[in-house]
Amino acid sequence: YDEKIVCRDINGDGYIDVPFVELMPNYEEDEAVYFTSYKKYNSVDFEDVVSGDFDFDNGYYINYPDKWLDSVTVEIAQEENMRSYFSYSAEQDKVGTELLKIKVYTKEQFDSADKTNLIELAESGDKIYTARIINKLNKYAIDSQQISQMFALIK
């Protein structure tokens, strides 16, 4: 798995959280694209803190809403600093409709980017984090307010 998936205080609450990983839907072991759940131990059991897709290279994560669990997968275009999220049918083992793109720009790239329907999520250092909602009608679709709540920089 990714050596960057380590214990850390993922949500800034002062407690160290433990990562649990499983393959993203539609991936094989050798492709190593993981769905990661950070959990805290409450003296009896582990409870979820954050679950979703983590881009450690670019320093952010998408906290999946319940309706996305086991039903949304990701395709990574590392050289473009972009991730695309698709619906996924486990019954048919098939990737479906593209829902969303997350792209990280440098400030220079952002100045010349097509900003049509682009949602600015955050800015950190020289990076600008953006989202573009592709499909608003799919049952797994989200809106700009939801993606803003799902997105977080890794502390």
The helical percent reads under 10%
Q: What is the strand tally? A: 10
Number of helices: 2
* Residue runs with pLDDT of under 50 for 5 or more positions: none
What is the chain-wise order of helices and strands? EEEEEEEHEEHE
Average per-residue pLDDT, rounded, comes to: 93
Q: Helix/strand/pairing class, anyone?
A: mainly beta
Morphology call: globular
- Radius of gyration over all CA atoms, rounded: 16 Å
Separation of termini? 21 Å
User: Which percent band covers the strand fraction?
Assistant: over 45%
Largest sheet: 5 strands, antiparallel
Going across the biggest sheet, name each strand in turn. 1-2-3-4-10
Q: Can you describe what's shown?
A:
The chain is mainly beta and 155 residues long. The chain has 2 helices and 10 strands. The strands form 2 sheets. A 5-stranded antiparallel β-sheet has the order 1-2-3-4-10. A hairpin with a 2-residue loop joins strand 8 and strand 9. The chain is globular. The two termini are 21 Å apart.
